[in-house]
Write a structure and sequence with these properties.
The protein is an alpha/beta fold and 283 residues long. The protein is 40% helix and 18% strand.
Length: 283
């Protein structure tokens, strides 16, 4: 069977992920007590059919879970269920804004501040985060973007590692879900070239300026080779999704041009690749 465990911080998008998984054919069980996880997995396995693809959402709403989410995942693996574990997180400030927008209390807030509940939950789920096969930071994602990403990842059988090459601007923060981080600020910035400043890294003139700088081609060639070398190892360890974050100052020129080229190079090695420009148009 294909078993997915979804957990993570309250407000980080678990409900959106649950709906997305239902959209691609998963039988989703939400807010299941930790003590029933093994029972649910066994029942789904015995039932087969529509339950062959089952997703279980675990969170702190059930106090029986406490810090035992990691233990439940370990027990599943010990019984040869091989669950795929997805952990959702977001920055504290973003979680606060999301809660304030819906005027709900955090499940661990009690009589304290909203921040207190978030900090307590983050500590409580630290061990579960360590069990994750895939971590998605939803800080910069809206509901539609998160749904699309989940449907892309889980929309077919998890038989092959997939990669996202994500361009970003350091001034807007480093992506929290990056497996590899590439800093392209060692190259001259097209921002200081008047005719290139209004363009983006997707324009041929900017791409030529960036990629024809001394050392750029050699760097990309070596980096693509490094990534190609580790893909088989990651796949052998059960990792199904790889994120390569490519950054420059503002996420408009160097990182965009580099991400486009790196994505094309990885596709040449037959690795399924999606190129995303997080901060393009943000300035």
């Amino acid at each position: 069977m294909d078993l997915v465990i979804v957990t993570g911080l309250s407000g980080a998008g678990r409900s959106t992920v649950a709906r997305a998984l239902e959209n691609v054919g998963y039988y989703v069980v939400d807010n299941l007590p930790q003590s029933l996880v093994i029972t649910m997995a066994e029942l789904a396995q015995q039932t087969g059919g529509a339950a062959r693809r089952t997703a279980i959402v675990l969170d702190v709403r059930s106090r029986a879970l406490s810090s035992d989410i990691a233990e439940a995942i370990q027990q599943l693996r010990a019984r040869d269920f091989h669950p795929r574990v997805l952990f959702l997180e977001a920055d504290d400030d973003v979680l606060v804004r999301r809660y304030e927008s819906v005027r709900r209390k955090h499940p661990l807030q009690g009589d304290g501040r909203l921040f207190d509940g978030i900090i307590a939950e983050r500590a409580l789920l630290a061990s579960a985060r360590g069990e994750a096969d895939l971590i998605i930071d939803t800080t910069e994602l809206n509901v539609n973007q998160l749904r699309n990403r989940v449907e892309e990842i889980f929309g077919d059988e998890w038989h092959r590692l997939k990669a996202t090459v994500l361009s970003f601007g350091f001034k807007y923060g480093v992506p929290g879900d990056a497996d590899f981080l590439v800093d392209m600020r060692f190259l001259p910035n097209p921002h200081w070239v008047p005719e290139l400043r209004p363009l983006t890294g997707q324009h041929p003139d900017v791409a030529d300026f960036v990629l024809k700088q001394p050392g750029a081609a050699q760097f990309l060639s070596r980096y693509a080779a490094l990534l190609t070398d580790v893909v088989d190892g990651f796949a052998g360890e059960g990792k199904q999704y790889l994120t390569v974050a490519v950054g420059c100052t503002g996420g408009k020129h160097r990182s965009v041009a580099t991400a486009e080229r790196l994505g094309a190079m990885l596709e040449e090695s037959k690795l399924p690749v999606r190129v995303v420009h997080r901060d393009l148009g943000r300035e």
